[in-house]
Each structure stands twice: as structure tokens, then as C-alpha cells.
């Protein structure tokens, strides 16, 4: 077998005289295609996955320094309902990362960085599946995002269920993976005599197969735009097949997803598609015996001790599925009940009033939408493990759109205490780009906001 050597970075001179690291060695000099304008201004309170808050909105403008005619690069994209966004975790603060991390969802338990969606990874690259609301000129408008304002975006790719969703694989995935992983883990971990938690590689849970190949047809206005306001959903959009529900997407991604009301149906479907009772009888016994993953304490911190749990072979013809560990869906961190104090309720009303006395929302269409977003964010418990365990009684702040939210957490709940206009307007990171209006119906609000909040 040919062993791939590990070459060091080998810079190559380009025509213009500048030195670029060689692609062949895997060194990529990136240039963001744009910087995200997002309703979340800081990491605190930003959903940990896009599926958590379907109302979270953003706009990405392709930079003219990338393409002279940015709109050309987006041609055809409007036919897709969802897009992958590849981005840089530019606010990670430091470059170091650890092989084992403690995802907030595991509440202090450690697992390997590559089995998580942690922002702290060797290359600080993020991947988000977002809903494409519309394409307008050289800009795309997204919802269901988990990125902060100013995030440098490296690439956009259309979500294509036929390529990106494992149920479309010809071979039943769970059988293939399980055989492979069990074989590999036995060989890898037993042959060298080392003990490793992963020597009993665990995979569990069948995902619901998706029927999410779909197309969008948007009527074009004479001015070449899609004719819809950013905040308004395009009613003329024709979904030819089932559109993936956030939860379904989350399931495919192996990510957490909670709290959005719209998720419950999909959640039920996942449950009903993958229940113990659909297992073959012989298999069921064994699988149930193997049971749930165990969590063991090692040194000072707990780590996941995976236990093999097979994905059931399901009804003939529906056996294609993916697998995720239990903790993705059955985390030790329970969803929280979210409450608003009467004060917060009044604040919210004021903030969404159109009387001009206060700045009003730029990304949310109504107080109701803002409320849903706040509920979604808090229900998923956005606190770090440290805060959750050691600073329980501290107030928690975050900003979404123009709302600065103050809340506290009790046992099983989060309570919103105040909602005030954010004192600082969101600034763009890219000096070349100005914060331009997020759609025609927003420009009026934005102007008013800018007047009230001069930079
Ligand atoms: C857990 S990561 C997941 C991101 C992406 N869906 C993925 O799987 O790669 C999402 C979190 O990253 C943080 N985040 C978002 N944008 C960021 C940025 N530009 N720089 C650093 N951290 C960011 C926020 O705290 C957010 O809750």
C-alpha cells in the first residue's frame, strides 16, 4: 500500500509575485467571499446549530473583489431551498484546540473533537445548512443560521439531498457502517494492546429517511429580483416534494435540535421510524441488552464510554439510514421552559412598535417572531458548561437583532427579565462593505434605526 507522505508547506510563487502556499500540500490561502450580516452580534446566545432557531436570519453579499459581477456567481442558486455555508470561526480568540472537547450538550463530558461540531478545531472551519430565503442581485438571504455578524464566509454550496443525504446511498448505510466500524475498532484498538474508549465503537439510532429533494420556482420581477421582501416568505415558492423540517435536517447532520414548535412533527416521525418494535425479533433482544451508552468518570472529567448499539434493520426497502450517538438526541441537558416577566413582555411590545419612538426589528417581522427566536435560543440552554455549573445565579445577556436580552436561569427554566434596544448598532467586519439594507421593506426601518443609532 502506498503511504502518503506528509509534506510540509511549500510556498509557490504566483504570476503576480506573491507567495502562496501550495494547494498540493493542503495549504489553502482563503479569501472570504463575503462577511455575514447576521441577527446575532456575539457568540453568547447564538444558537449552537441552525436547526434551533428557524427565525434567525442573515444576509450574505458576495464581495466585488471576488467577482466583478457577484450576481453571476449566484445564478441558478435560487432554485435550491437550502445551502451549505462554509465559514471561519473568526471569533475563536485563540488558535489552540484540544483533541477532546466538552460540548455544552454533554454538560461536561468529554469526547473527541471530530465527533462534535465544536468551533474549536484544528482548522476553524464551520459548516451550516441554512434555508435559502431568496437570492437578490449579488446577495443571498438566509434563515436558520448559527453564525454571528461579521463571520467570514468561504463558500456556498447548494444542498442536494441526492448527494448529501445518506438515505440515498445504495447500500444500507447502517449495516455497512456498523460492520466497518466494529471491524476497524477491533483491529485498531486491540492489535496495539491499548485501551481506548472507542474500542467499542458505538453507533445508534436510525434516522428518518428524508424525501427532501425539491426545487423552488420563484417568479422574477421585471427588475430581476425575486419580487419578495427579505422578511416575507415567498408564497409562490413551489415545493415539489417534502421540504426538510429543521429536525430532519438536524437528524441528518447529527446535530442537536430543540424547542422550535415546528420540529415536533418531524421529531415524532423520527421516533416512529426507528422504534425498538420495528427491529427484527432476534436483533431486538441483543440490541436492547447492549443498551444505552455509559458515561464513565476518568481522571477529573467524564468521558463517553460508547457501547455498541446497532441501528435496526427496518422494513424492506426503507433500510437506508444514518447513525448518530445517543447524546445527540438524548443529551443530559434538558430543554428549558422559557418565561417572560411582565416587564419583558412590555419591553418586547415597545421594541416592535412602529411608532418611531424606538428602533424596531431589522431581521424579525413581528414581536411574535422575536419572541419565538428568544424562546428557541433559551430553551436550548445557551450557557457554557462552566456557567451552567459554576455561575448558575449570574445574569445572562445576549443580543439578537436589535434586542439586548437579560435573563436568568433556574431549575429547568430560563426567565427573560428585560429586553432593551441594543446600544451598539452592528458593524460590518469587511471595511469594503457597508451594512446595506436587508431588503426593500427593511430599508425604511434601517434608515430610521441608523438615524437613531449613528455609528
Ligand atoms: C457549535 S458551532 C456550529 C457551527 C456549524 N453549524 C458547524 O457545525 O460547524 C455554533 C456556535 O459557534 C459560535 N460561532 C458562530 N459564529 C462564530 C464565529 N464567526 N466565530 C466564532 N464562533 C462562532 C456560536 O457560539 C455558535 O453558537
Write the layout of secondary structure elements.
Blueprint: E1 11-13, E2 19-21, E3 34-35, E4 37-38, E5 57-61, H1 70-73, E6 82-88, E7 100-101, E8 111-112, E9 125-136, E10 139-143, E11 152-158, H2 161-164, H3 173-191, E12 204-206, H4 246-253, H5 264-273, H6 281-290, E13 294-298, E14 301-305, E15 323-324, H7 326-329, E16 337-340, H8 342-352, H9 367-379, H10 385-390, E17 396-400, E18 403-410, E19 413-421, H11 440-452
Parallel strand pairs: 16-19
Antiparallel strand pairs: 1-2, 3-11, 4-5, 5-10, 6-9, 6-11, 7-8, 9-10, 12-15, 13-14, 17-18, 18-19
Catalytic activity: N(6)-L-threonylcarbamoyladenosine(37) in tRNA + S-adenosyl-L-methionine = N(6)-methyl,N(6)-L-threonylcarbamoyladenosine(37) in tRNA + S-adenosyl-L-homocysteine + H(+)
Domain TsaA-like: 30-168
InterPro entries: TrmO-like_N, UPF0066_cons_site, YaeB-like, YaeB-like_sf, YaeB_N_sf
Describe the structure.
- The chain has a domain at 31-89 and 124-165 and 210-259 and 335-452: Elongation Factor Tu (Ef-tu), domain 3.
- Helix content is 22%, strand content 20%.
- It contains eleven helices and 19 strands.
- It has helices spanning 70-73, 161-164, 173-191, 246-253, 264-273, 281-290, 326-329, 342-352, 367-379, 385-390, 440-452, and strands at residues 11-13, 19-21, 34-35, 37-38, 57-61, 82-88, 100-101, 111-112, 125-136, 139-143, 152-158, 204-206, 294-298, 301-305, 323-324, 337-340, 396-400, 403-410, 413-421.
- The strands form six sheets. A seven-stranded antiparallel beta sheet has the order 3-11-6-9-10-5-4, with no helix packed on it. It has a four-stranded mixed beta sheet with strand order 16-19-18-17.
- 37% of the residues are buried.
- Bound molecules: S-adenosylmethionine.
- Residues 43, 46-50, 89-92, 117, 119, 126-128, 146-148, 151 line the site of S-adenosylmethionine (SAM).
- Keywords: Methyltransferase, S-adenosyl-L-methionine, Transferase, tRNA processing.
- One of its GO terms (molecular function) is methyltransferase activity.
- Residues 209-245 are annotated as: Disordered.
Amino acid at each position: 500500500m502506498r503511504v502518503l507522505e506528509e509534506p510540509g508547506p511549500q510556498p509557490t510563487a504566483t504570476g503576480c509575485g506573491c507567495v502562496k502556499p501550495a494547494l498540493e500540500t493542503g495549504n489553502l490561502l482563503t479569501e472570504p467571499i463575503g462577511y455575514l450580516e447576521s441577527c446575532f452580534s456575539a457568540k453568547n446566545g447564538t444558537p449552537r446549530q441552525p436547526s434551533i432557531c428557524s427565525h434567525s436570519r442573515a444576509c450574505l453579499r458576495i464581495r466585488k473583489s471576488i467577482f466583478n459581477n457577484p450576481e453571476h456567481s449566484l445564478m441558478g442558486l435560487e432554485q435550491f431551498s437550502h445551502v451549505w455555508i462554509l465559514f471561519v470561526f473568526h471569533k475563536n480568540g485563540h488558535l489552540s484546540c484540544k483533541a477532546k472537547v466538552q460540548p455544552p450538550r454533554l454538560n461536561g463530558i468529554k469526547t473527541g473533537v471530530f465527533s462534535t461540531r465544536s468551533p474549536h478545531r484544528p482548522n476553524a472551519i464551520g459548516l451550516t445548512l441554512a434555508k435559502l430565503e431568496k437570492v437578490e442581485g449579488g446577495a443571498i438571504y438566509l434563515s436558520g443560521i448559527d453564525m454571528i455578524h461579521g463571520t467570514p464566509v468561504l463558500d456556498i454550496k447548494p444542498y442536494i439531498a441526492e448527494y448529501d443525504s445518506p438515505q440515498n446511498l445504495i447500500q444500507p448505510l447502517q449495516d455497512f457502517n456498523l460492520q466497518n466500524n466494529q471491524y476497524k475498532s477491533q483491529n485498531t484498538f486491540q492489535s496495539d494492546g491499548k485501551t481506548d474508549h472507542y474500542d467499542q465503537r458505538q453507533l445508534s439510532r436510525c434516522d428518518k429517511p428524508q424525501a427532501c429533494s425539491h426545487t423552488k420556482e420563484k417568479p422574477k420581477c421585471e427588475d430581476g429580483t425575486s419580487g419578495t421582501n427579505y422578511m416575507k416568505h415567498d408564497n409562490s415558492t413551489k415545493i415539489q416534494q417534502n421540504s426538510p423540517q429543521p429536525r430532519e435536517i438536524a437528524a441528518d447532520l447529527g446535530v442537536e435540535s430543540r424547542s422550535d414548535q415546528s420540529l415536533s412533527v418531524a421529531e415524532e416521525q423520527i421516533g416512529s421510524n426507528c422504534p425498538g418494535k420495528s427491529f427484527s425479533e432476534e436483533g431486538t433482544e441483543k440490541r436492547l441488552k447492549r443498551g444505552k451508552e455509559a458515561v464513565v468518570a476518568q481522571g477529573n472529567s467524564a468521558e463517553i464510554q460508547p457501547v455498541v448499539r446497532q441501528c435496526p434493520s427496518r422494513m424492506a426497502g426503507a433500510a437506508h439510514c444514518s447513525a448518530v450517538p445517543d447524546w445527540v438526541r438524548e443529551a443530559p441537558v434538558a430543554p428549558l421552559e422559557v418565561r417572560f416577566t411582565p416587564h419583558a413582555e412590555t419591553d418586547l411590545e415597545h421594541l416592535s412598535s412602529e411608532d418611531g419612538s424606538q428602533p424596531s426589528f431589522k431581521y424579525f417581522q413581528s414581536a411574535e417572531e422575536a419572541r419565538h427566536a428568544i424562546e428557541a435560543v433559551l430553551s436550548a440552554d445557551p450557557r457554557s458548561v462552566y456557567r451552567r455549573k459554576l455561575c448558575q445565579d449570574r445574569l445572562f445577556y445576549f443580543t439578537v437583532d436589535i434586542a439586548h436580552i437579560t435573563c436568568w436561569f433556574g431549575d429547568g427554566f430560563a426567565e427573560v427579565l428585560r429586553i432593551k434596544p441594543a446600544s451598539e448598532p452592528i458593524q460590518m467586519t469587511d471595511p469594503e462593505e457597508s451594512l446595506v439594507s436587508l431588503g426593500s421593506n427593511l430599508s425604511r426601518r434601517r434608515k430610521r434605526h441608523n438615524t437613531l443609532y449613528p455609528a
